[in-house]
Structures are given as structure tokens and as C-alpha cells.
Amino acid sequence: QVQFVESGGGLVQPGGSLRLSCTPSGISFSTYAMGWYRQAPGKQRELVAQITSDGLINYADSVKGRFTISRDNRKNTVYLQMNSLKPEDTATYYCKAQRSSAWPSYWGQGTQVTVSS
């Protein structure tokens, strides 16, 4: 059974920073691509950033230059460093693990990020 521990969300002022962490268990972490997605109220879930098992990274255009995804295979953890946060970044952020498109995906429970003054 795959379980996730997500943390790091919260309330932050515009321009501030947060770092999200996601630690899944029950999978061979180093062989999985890991991604961060977000979903705002009334909107579809969207990809924020993804890092493959080989370390290849892609970002949504809306977060390029502000967010950084990284992974530590020794700690089985993926991170999302979010800087220069904007109110439009407000959403529930979800961690996703997927070995490849032919394999099932696993989702974390989500962590809330609210950017407001």
C-alpha cells in the first residue's frame, strides 16, 4: 500500500516563500517520476513541476523562475521550493508518483497553500 506524507503548506504573504515536502512509502522511490500538481477551487488540477527518475525536470510556464523541484533519493523525498509567491498560486498542492505512463499513479492527500495579505 502506497502512503504519502506531505508537509510545508500554509499561509504566506505575496512575495513570500514556502517549501513543500512529499515522502511516499511503499514504492521504490528512486525509480519513480515525482510531480507536484495543484488545484484551485473551481479549477482543474494542473501540473506544477515534475522530476523524472533520471532527474529531468519540467515546469508549468506560470511557475518557471519562481519554483524549484528537487528530489533526495536517500530520503525518499521530493521537494517544491516556492519563491515569489503570488495570490494566484493559492491552491491545494498534491504530490504524484508514477513509474511511467504504463504504470498506475499514486497521489498524496494534498497540502493547502494560501497566498494572501
What is this structure's SSE topology?
Blueprint: E1 3-7, E2 10-12, E3 18-25, E4 33-39, E5 46-51, E6 57-59, E7 67-72, E8 77-82, E9 91-98, E10 105-107, E11 111-115
Characterize this entry briefly.
The chain is mainly beta.
Detailed description of the structure:
With 117 residues, the protein is mainly β. Helices cover 0% and strands 51% of the residues. It contains no helices and eleven strands. A hairpin with a 4-residue loop joins strand 7 and strand 8. The chain is globular, with a radius of gyration of 13 Å.
- H/E order of the elements? EEEEEEEEEEE
Radius of gyration: 13 Å
Helical percentage = under 10%
Mean pLDDT: 97
Outline type: globular
Largest beta-sheet details: 7 strands, mixed
Distance from N terminus to C terminus (CA atoms, Å) equals 40 Å
Distinct helical segment count: 0
Structural class: mainly beta
Q: Can you count the beta strands? A: 11
- Kindly estimate the percentage of residues that lie in beta strands according to DSSP: over 45%
Low-confidence stretches: none
Task: Provide the descriptors you would attach to this structure in a database record.
4-stranded antiparallel sheet; 7-stranded mixed sheet; 117 residues; 51% strand; 0% helix; 11 strands; single chain; mainly beta
